Amino acid sequence: MSQAVLELKNAAIYQTDNLVLSDVSVTVDKGEFVYLIGKTGTGKSSFMKTLYGDLPLKEGEGHIVGYNLATLKENDIPFLRRKLGVVFQDFKLLNDRTVHDNLRFVLTATGWKDKAGMESKINEVLSKVDMKTKAFKYPYQLSGGEQQRVAIARALLNDPELILADEPTGNLDPQTSVEVMEVLREINKNGNTILMATHDYALLLKYPSKTLKCDENQIFEVVQKTV
What we know:
Keywords: ATP-binding, Cell cycle, Cell division, Nucleotide-binding
Distance between the termini: 30 Å
Shape: globular
Family: Belongs to the ABC transporter superfamily.
Helix content: 25-40%
CATH architecture: 3-Layer(aba) Sandwich
Largest sheet: 6 strands, mixed
Oligomer: single chain
Function: Part of the ABC transporter FtsEX involved in cellular division. Important for assembly or stability of the septal ring.
Number of domains: 1
Strand order of the largest sheet: 6-7-8-3-9-10
Protein name: Cell division ATP-binding protein FtsE
CATH superfamily: P-loop containing nucleotide triphosphate hydrolases
Order of helices and strands: EEEHEEHEHHHEHEHEE
Number of helices: 7
CATH topology: Rossmann fold
CATH class: Alpha Beta
GO molecular function: ATP binding; ATP hydrolysis activity; transmembrane transporter activity
């Protein structure tokens, strides 16, 4: 039986008082890799922000990793985000800390106390993204692709039930985008559920998967054409 880690029913997504998406009914099951596509301004980012608690869900039903988005309280948001891994377009790494210390900072902030456990977890996630040898470097010493790998490692630290990747290849050249995509797909094969917003249609062709599209205030599933 499939397990939904994300389910919205008849939801409306607002950016302040502006209706961005209406009548949204979407399900993402455990283990799936799902794309969210659509032109700029069609609501992809607003949809993502609603999922990680940056925008409130004002209408309809929404459940994500065991949290009810419609009744989500301010002090629930940090706990919700611990069960989500969020990867942004612009990496959001701390430039004054090494890769290792960026990850350690997140673990400390999310309540980890055991030093040996923290070291073990940092090594584990850096190995998954093939960045273990760069742990002592600072973000500004890394390429864009390497910084995004670190950002993906950071998203994996608390064993998230769902990874939300918001245009993770948006600032990368085509070759680096493919490398980052390979990392995400490998993580998905290992059991992580991923919802990835993108406008890079080349990636969809190269790595076909379930696809949701934002268009004309709606989100709907796109049926992939098989060649």
